[in-house]
Amino acid sequence: MARLCAFMIKQRLTTTDLARLLERSGLSIHAEPKGGIFVWAEAPDVQDSALLASEAAQAGIMLAPGNIFRPQMQPSPWLRFNVAYSLDPRLERFLGEAINR
């Protein structure tokens, strides 16, 4: 039980850390995450986050664009981030450069 509690505390901190990273990079989070393994963020002035995800893939960074979660793959400015893989410093650098140009 102690291990589970420690894991839950660490995950909550990691989720909060990711939310702050995304905000520093210029993305918007419309609901403060309270845990879980995913954080959704909206890219400003982006109509189709698939283009941003494609650019990230060329830099060796995997992003999940919102359109893959929509029934007809409609464009979406949203991205879904996996907490476990999103605290890599390369992600913050990439987002900071891509969002702020």
Describe it.
This protein has 101 residues and is α+β, with helices and mostly antiparallel strands. The chain has one domain: Alpha-Beta Complex (Aspartate Aminotransferase, domain 1), CATH 3.90.1150.10. 44% of the residues lie in helices and 12% in strands. The protein is built from 3 helices and 3 strands, in the order αβαββα. A 3-stranded antiparallel β-sheet has the order 1-3-2, covered by helices on one side. The relative contact order is 0.20. Residues 4-11 have low confidence and may be disordered.
What keywords describe this structure?
Aspartate Aminotransferase, domain 1, alpha+beta, 3 helices, 3 strands, three-stranded antiparallel beta sheet
Overview in brief:
This protein has 101 residues and is α+β, with helices and mostly antiparallel strands. It has helices at residues 2-24, 49-58, 89-99; strands at residues 38-42, 64-65, 78-82.
Q: Report the count of strand segments.
A: 3
Widest sheet: strand ordering: 1-3-2
Describe the global form: globular
Q: State the order of secondary-structure elements, H for helix, E for strand.
A: HEHEEH
Structural class: alpha+beta
User: pLDDT average, as an integer?
Assistant: 85
Q: Could you give me the name of the CATH homologous superfamily?
A: Aspartate Aminotransferase, domain 1
Q: Outline the low-pLDDT stretches.
A: 4-11
Question: And the CATH topology?
Answer: Aspartate Aminotransferase, domain 1
Main beta sheet strand tally, sense and closure: 3 strands, antiparallel
> Rg, please?
14 Å
User: What is the total domain count?
Assistant: 1
What is the percentage of strand-forming residues?
5-15%
- From the 3D coordinates, which CATH architecture would you assign? Alpha-Beta Complex
- Number of helical segments? 3
How far apart are the termini? Answer: 47 Å
What is the CATH top level name?
Answer: Alpha Beta
Range of helix content: 40-55%
